[in-house]
Write a structure and sequence with these properties.
This is PhzF family isomerase. With 300 residues, the protein is α+β, with helices and mostly antiparallel strands. A hairpin with an 8-residue loop joins strand 3 and strand 4. The longest helix is centred in the N-terminal third of the chain and has 15 residues.
């Protein structure tokens, strides 16, 4: 029998049952793909992270991510959760850990402050695809339950990625954002066609000077109808806003706070930082709080 030390962590919040929940197995050495998939299905979070010992001298460990139905290459909130769990489990001081992911070795900074932790995640290389044609745009908008008049005309609909791609859809109204009731089957079918499983609908309609955007993220193609607070959406959003010159920035840096999860009562905040060279994003980081909901052992 192997005892797996397992955490449930809420990311991007300090309040339990808010933010985005993730499972974390901190001692996953010896698990095979089938076992990880079964554990992820049992915990039934949008993602569960599995931490392994390093397999080479150039990293401090290996991390893999599973939804209840499939493995994904990278995940923002599950990374925050995994590093937070590891910091608690090992009573770490402030440090930077390099973990091997499916998109390469990434540095994750653990920041200790007053006996608690924040996590700073450096994401993968930013990529921005061309805007979709009129046919796909129309079908996507219809599937999301939007009208053409709801769109923010400054925001092209296109795929942005820092390792796990999302479609960016800017709209005018937060009221409309919270009223959305998408056709999940239509979105899932469209995901196969565009080779992207996530749709991030966002708005600048904020009544808080510290919050630039509100968003909702739908990924029915991988079994996640709605994700509460999404690192791999808000991070790429920063690059998208910079590269499309939708926002102003100074000193080659753009920083903002994105809020997500309002509609489904899992509110959380992501701090996004974009480093810029020649008016293009060259490095994207997200920073977040987390809180332990429970720690348990699974015997298999």
């Amino acid at each position: 029998m192997k005892k797996l030390t397992t955490y449930q962590i809420d990311s991007f919040t300090k309040e339990k049952f808010k933010g985005n929940p993730a499972g974390v197995v901190v001692n996953a050495d010896g698990l095979n793909d089938y076992q990880m998939q079964q554990i992820a299905r049992e915990l039934n979070n949008s993602e569960t992270a599995f931490l392994f010992s390093p397999d080479s001298e150039d990293c401090d460990g290996v991390i893999r991510y599973f939804t209840p139905s499939t493995e994904v290459p990278i995940c923002g909130h599950a990374t925050i959760a995994a590093m937070y769990a590891k910091a608690h489990e090992d009573n770490l001081d402030s440090c930077v850990l390099k973990f091997k992911t499916k998109i390469g070795i990434l540095p994750f900074e653990i920041i200790k402050n007053n006996g608690d932790y924040q996590i700073l995640m450096t994401q993968g290389n930013f990529e921005l695809s061309p805007a979709f044609n009129e046919d796909i745009t129309t079908r996507m908008i219809t599937a999301l339950g939007l009208e053409e008049s709801d769109r923010n005309e400054k925001c092209p609909i296109q795929i942005a990625s820092t390792g796990h791609s999302k479609v960016m859809i800017g709209i005018k109204s937060r009221t409309k954002l919270n009223a959305l009731s998408p056709n999940y089957n239509a979105l899932a079918n469209l995901s196969k066609e565009i080779n992207c499983n996530g749709y991030f609908v966002f708005t600048f309609d904020s009544d808080d000077k510290d919050i630039l955007t509100y968003g909702r993220m739908f990924a029915p193609g991988i079994g996640i109808n709605e994700d509460p607070v999404t690192g791999n959406a808000n991070g790429p959003l920063g690059g998208y806003l910079v590269q499309n010159k939708i926002v102003d920035f100074k000193n080659d840096t753009f920083e903002f706070n994105g809020r997500q999860g309002e509609k489904i009562d899992r509110l959380g905040v992501i701090k996004v930082k974009v480093k810029i060279e020649n008016n293009k994003p060259v490095l994207i980081q997200i920073k977040g709080d987390a809180v332990v909901v429970f720690r348990a052992e699974i015997e298999i």
